[in-house]
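thought: user wants a sequence for this fold. calling inverse folding tool.
action: design(structure=
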């Protein structure tokens, strides 16, 4: 009897220590997410200002919309994880809806998945403008662009709301997200569909579209380099897809901007592939094949990497997208003073 009591006490103490350690790790993770969310919010807001100041919000509607998505995601990241950090008791109807809307990342995923859908729209738009410019002029009307923007919001909200409300629950004051499934088959089917739709399909579109874009750029650059002759000072980069016989400054500037937009979006897309791949593979192996044990710390680390993508995107635009870069450089006092001197 004495041995049994000692074992029970030891087990209880171990559970308390484990729970305390888990809670401490969760606080560190949530604090880090709130921090990068604040940084991302400020950075995305600055990028939106620069795009408006440079008039790019009218010329590059989908890219501007992509930054709107990223800003919304960062704001929701701060709100959602601040609520988790304060560990508000989930009691009654208010606790239930707090779980369903915020604690289970419902609104956050609505914005995040919407940004992925919009990123695919940006890729297809770039592909049509570079590879099939004649088709792009006929197809890419303003109403088509606005329809793509609305579709990104509606499809993401409908999907995430239906998923989260049907698979989340409050049990003993704790919010369990995506934990209540009708069957194991439903869980596996959704996991496979989610990874295929929001990663495999996205990567496939990136690879096919940007590969074709780069092929066209190289072909046009080589053709124009041959026509320019050895004495020409114009680089191949500034001449890609320039119509023959056209050498106006306006056209050259337009092609340079187009090339710069393509390079910027390739970097954004590649960054998405790198930061989303680890968690996609982990969840697929965990949910479908059950080859690994659930590890909360590993999941938190992979989730943080995914959130880092949202918050780091504006720094790509700030360093690579020339119209935005010029506006931001104009905000630096020492830079302005040196230019005046």
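)
observation: tool returned 341 residues.
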């Amino acid at each position: 009897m004495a041995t049994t009591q000692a074992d029970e006490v030891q087990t209880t103490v171990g559970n308390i220590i484990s729970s305390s350690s888990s809670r401490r790790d969760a606080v560190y993770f949530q604090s880090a997410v709130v921090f990068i969310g604040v940084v991302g919010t400020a950075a995305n807001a600055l990028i939106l200002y620069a795009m408006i100041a440079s008039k790019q919000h009218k010329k590059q509607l989908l890219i501007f919309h992509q930054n709107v998505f990223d800003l919304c995601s960062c704001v929701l990241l701060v709100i959602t994880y601040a609520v988790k950090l304060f560990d508000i008791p989930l009691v009654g109807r208010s606790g239930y809806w707090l779980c369903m809307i915020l604690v289970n990342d419902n609104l956050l995923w609505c914005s995040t998945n919407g940004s992925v859908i919009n990123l695919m729209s940006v890729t297809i738009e770039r592909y049509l403008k570079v590879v099939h410019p004649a088709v792009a002029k006929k197809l890419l009307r303003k109403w088509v662009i606005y329809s793509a923007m609305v579709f990104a919001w509606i499809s993401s909200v409908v999907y995430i709301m239906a998923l989260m409300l049907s698979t989340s629950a409050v049990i003993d004051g704790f919010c369990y997200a995506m934990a209540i499934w009708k069957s194991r088959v439903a869980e596996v089917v959704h996991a496979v569909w989610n990874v295929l739709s929001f990663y495999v399909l996205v990567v496939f579109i990136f690879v096919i579209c940007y590969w074709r874009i780069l092929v066209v750029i190289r072909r046009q650059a080589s053709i124009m380099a041959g026509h320019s002759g050895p004495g020409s000072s114009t680089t191949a980069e500034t001449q890609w897809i320039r119509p023959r016989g056209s050498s106006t400054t306006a056209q050259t500037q337009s092609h340079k901007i187009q090339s710069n937009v393509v390079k910027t979006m390739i970097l954004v897309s590649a960054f998405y592939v790198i930061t989303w791949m680890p968690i996609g593979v982990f969840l697929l192996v965990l949910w479908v094949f059950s080859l690994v044990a659930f590890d909360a710390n590993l999941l938190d680390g992979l989730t943080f990497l995914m959130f880092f993508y949202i918050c780091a995107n504006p720094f790509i635009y700030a360093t690579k997208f020339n119209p935005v870069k010029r506006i931001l450089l104009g905000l630096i006092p020492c830079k302005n003073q040196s230019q005046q001197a």
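thought: summarizing for user.
answer: Here is the designed sequence. The first strand starts at residue 169 and ends at 171.
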